[in-house]
Task: inverse folding
C-alpha cells in the first residue's frame, strides 16, 4: 500500500472510531433497511420458485380413490371418467398421473429435502386426472359434475390456491419493499449527517490540505470511505442475519406446507451481492452529496 | 508571474445588494519580485489574495498566475495551481495534533510525494527557518514567532514559485516580525516571488520594496522601493 492509500485508510478508520455512537447508529440503520430489502428480494424469489413450479401444471386435479379414503376406483370407472371428461366442452386436455408419476414429481419437487422424500412411500400419493380447461373460470362446471362420480376422491382448483398465495405474498413483499425504501432513505440521511459531522470535525486539516494543493478526491476519499465502510458493515450484518434465519424459517415452513418448494441457503447467498451493492452504494452516494457543498474548493 | 488585467470582483450581498471588492484593477508582478499590498480594511487586499489562489473567481478581466489563466481554469486543476503557491496566514493554521515535522511533512504527503523525498526535504526547510531542533515539538510548545516560521516552512517546503503572505506578522511583536521578514527576504532571494498583504507600517518602511496600495477596490499607488504611505 502506498503512502497515499495508507493515509486515506487511516483517516477513514480514525473517523469511524472517533464517532463510535454515530457509526453504530449508521451500521444499525443500514442493517435494518437492508435486512428488509433482502427479505423482500427473497420473498420474490420464493414467489417465482413456487409460480414456476405451478404454472406448468394443469388447473384442476381430480384425485382418484385408492382405498385410503374411499373404495379404490376400478379400471372401468377410471376409463369411463376419462371418456366422460374428454367429451366435456370446457375441457381442453386430460392427463393421467399415476401413483408412480405423482411420486416422481414429488421427489423432484422436494429433491433438496431428502428426509421428506424418504418419509413418503411411493404408494402414498394418489393417482389423479389433471384437467386443463378451455376457460379456467369454469372450474365449477367440472367440480359440480364430477365430485360425486364413483371413484373420485376430491377435486381441487389449484389456480385458486395459487392466486391466494400470490396475492398474499405480493402484499407482504410490497410492504417490505416500501419499509425497506423508507429505511434506506433514513439510513442515507443519517450517513450524510455523520459524514458532515466528521468533515466539520476535521475542517482545519481539510482547509490546510486545500491550501497546499491536495486534489479533491484525496481530501474527500477518507470521508466517503468512512461512510462506505459503515454501509459495508451494515450490509454484511444484514446478509449474516438473513443467512442465519431465512433457511431455518423456510425449512420449518416446508415441513408444514408441502404444496410448493421453498427457497434455501443458496438464494440467501445469491441475494448477498445485491445487499452489498445497495449498502455501499447508498453510503457512497450520501457521503458524496454531503461533501459536495462542504468541501468545495 | 502574476498579471491582473482590468480585474473586477463583486460580492453579492442579500437579495440585490452588491459590494465591489476590486474595480478594474491592473497589476503585474514579475518573477522574483517582493511586493507589499497595503491598504485599510475593506480595501480589497484579502479579495486580491483570494483571487490569486482561486478561492474566489474574478467576474471581469483577466488574471494569470504562474502561467495559468484563472478565469478559465477548470476546478479540478485548481490543486495544480496551489502546488505552485505557498500560503502563509496571520494565524499560522498549524495542526495541533501533529508535531512540527509532521505539520510540514503533511503538506508533501497530501500531494502524493514519496516518503524518501519528504524525509529529505523537511529537515532542509526546518534548517532554513532555523527550527532544526524543534522538529519533534508540538505547535503549542512554540512561541508565536516560531509557529509562524513553521508555517512559512510548510508553505515553502514544496518549492513554490510564489509565496503569498496574508498579514504574516499580524499576531507577532515587532522584534519577532523582523525575524520573519528576514526569513521571507531570504526565501525571496532564492527566486520565489513574494506577495505580502500587511498593515505593518514599520516593516514596509524598513524593507523598501515595491508597494501596491489599494483603497476601495482601486489601486491608488504602485511604487517601487516604496513606504507605507499616509503622510510618512
Result:
Amino acid at each position: 500500500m502506498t503512502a497515499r492509500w495508507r493515509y486515506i485508510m487511516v483517516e477513514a478508520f480514525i473517523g469511524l472510531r472517533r464517532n463510535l455512537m454515530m457509526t453504530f447508529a449508521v451500521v444499525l440503520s443500514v442493517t435494518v433497511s437492508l435486512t428488509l430489502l433482502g427479505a423482500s428480494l427473497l420473498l420474490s424469489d420464493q414467489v417465482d420458485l413456487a409460480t414456476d413450479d405451478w404454472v406448468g401444471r394443469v388447473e384442476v386435479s381430480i384425485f382418484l380413490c385408492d382405498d385410503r379414503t374411499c373404495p379404490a376406483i376400478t379400471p372401468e370407472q377410471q376409463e369411463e371418467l376419462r371418456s366422460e371428461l374428454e367429451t366435456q366442452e370446457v375441457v381442453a386436455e386430460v392427463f393421467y398421473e399415476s401413483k408412480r408419476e405423482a411420486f416422481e414429481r414429488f421427489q423432484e419437487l422436494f429433491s433438496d429435502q431428502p428426509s421428506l422424500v424418504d418419509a413418503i412411500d411411493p404408494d402414498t400419493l394418489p393417482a389423479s386426472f389433471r384437467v386443463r380447461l378451455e376457460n379456467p373460470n369454469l372450474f365449477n362446471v367440472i367440480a359440480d359434475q364430477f365430485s360425486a362420480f364413483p371413484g373420485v376422491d376430491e377435486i381441487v382448483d389449484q389456480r385458486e390456491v395459487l392466486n391466494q398465495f400470490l396475492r398474499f405474498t405480493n402484499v407482504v413483499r410490497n410492504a417490505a419493499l416500501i419499509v425497506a425504501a423508507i429505511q434506506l432513505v433514513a439510513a442515507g440521511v443519517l450517513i450524510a449527517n455523520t459524514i458532515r459531522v466528521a468533515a466539520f470535525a476535521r475542517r482545519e486539516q481539510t482547509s490546510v490540505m486545500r491550501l497546499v494543493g491536495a486534489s479533491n478526491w484525496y481530501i474527500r476519499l477518507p470521508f466517503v470511505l468512512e461512510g462506505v465502510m459503515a454501509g459495508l458493515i451494515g450490509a454484511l450484518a444484514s446478509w449474516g442475519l438473513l443467512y442465519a434465519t431465512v433457511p431455518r424459517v423456510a425449512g420449518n415452513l416446508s415441513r408444514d406446507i408441502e404444496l410448493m418448494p421453498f427457497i434455501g441457503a443458496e438464494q440467501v447467498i445469491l441475494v448477498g451481492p445485491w445487499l452489498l451493492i445497495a449498502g455501499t452504494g447508498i453510503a457512497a452516494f450520501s457521503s458524496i452529496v454531503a461533501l459536495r457543498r462542504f468541501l468545495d474548493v | 508571474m502574476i498579471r491582473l488585467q482590468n480585474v473586477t470582483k463583486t460580492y453579492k450581498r442579500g437579495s440585490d445588494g452588491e459590494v465591489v471588492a476590486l474595480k478594474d484593477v491592473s497589476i503585474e508582478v514579475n518573477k522574483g519580485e517582493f511586493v507589499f499590498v497595503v491598504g485599510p480594511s475593506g480595501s480589497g487586499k484579502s479579495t486580491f489574495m483570494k483571487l490569486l489562489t482561486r478561492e474566489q473567481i474574478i467576474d471581469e478581466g483577466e488574471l494569470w498566475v504562474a502561467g495559468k489563466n484563472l478565469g478559465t481554469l477548470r476546478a479540478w486543476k485548481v490543486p495544480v495551481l496551489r502546488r505552485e503557491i505557498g500560503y502563509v496566514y496571520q494565524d499560522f493554521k498549524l495542526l495541533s495534533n501533529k508535531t512540527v515535522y509532521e505539520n510540514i511533512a503533511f503538506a508533501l504527503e497530501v500531494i502524493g510525494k514519496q516518503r524518501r523525498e519528504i524525509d529529505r526535504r523537511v529537515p532542509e526547510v526546518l534548517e532554513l527557518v532555523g527550527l532544526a531542533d524543534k522538529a519533534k515539538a508540538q505547535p503549542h510548545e512554540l512561541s508565536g514567532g516560531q509557529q509562524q516560521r513553521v508555517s512559512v516552512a510548510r508553505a515553502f517546503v514544496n518549492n513554490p514559485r510564489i509565496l503569498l503572505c496574508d498579514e504574516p506578522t499580524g499576531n507577532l511583536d515587532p522584534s519577532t516580525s523582523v525575524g520573519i521578514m528576514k526569513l521571507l527576504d531570504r526565501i525571496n532571494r532564492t527566486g520565489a516571488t513574494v506577495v505580502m498583504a500587511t498593515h505593518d507600517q514599520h516593516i514596509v518602511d524598513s524593507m523598501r520594496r515595491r508597494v501596491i496600495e489599494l483603497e476601495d477596490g482601486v489601486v491608488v499607488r504602485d511604487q517601487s522601493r516604496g513606504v507605507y504611505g499616509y503622510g510618512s
